[in-house]
Write a structure and sequence with these properties.
Number of domains: 1
Distance between the termini: 49 Å
Largest sheet: none
Shape: elongated
Helix content: 40-55%
Number of strands: 0
Order of helices and strands: HH
Radius of gyration: 25 Å
Number of helices: 2
Structural class: mainly alpha
């Protein structure tokens, strides 16, 4: 198998450093736009949903902390932000 025929993701390849030729790769395909990517699978969607849920939790905690700092009065607009983030996390 020549260097040009070697699969990119094969990790048991030992380069012959004494040969004086460095391992080279060539681009065989490029992705031009985001539209060329496949639809995300379930694990990606779950990670995104989890990130949104964590953002909602952080917003809720921040709203309560701000309310505490204001003498116990929570601003409804802060709760609205947390609520919208929570809704977004549900899909």
């Amino acid at each position: 198998m020549t260097r040009r025929e070697h699969p990119l993701l094969r990790d048991d390849f030992d380069e012959d450093v004494d040969a004086g030729v460095a391992l080279t790769f060539e681009i065989v395909q490029t992705i031009e736009t985001e539209g060329d990517f496949p639809a995300p699978d379930h694990s990606v969607n779950q990670l995104r949903s989890d990130a949104k849920a964590r953002a909602a939790a952080r917003a809720l905690v921040a709203a309560y902390q701000q309310g505490e700092a204001n003498g116990g009065s929570i601003d409804w607009s802060d709760l609205d932000v947390a609520y919208e983030l929570a809704l977004a996390s549900q899909g």
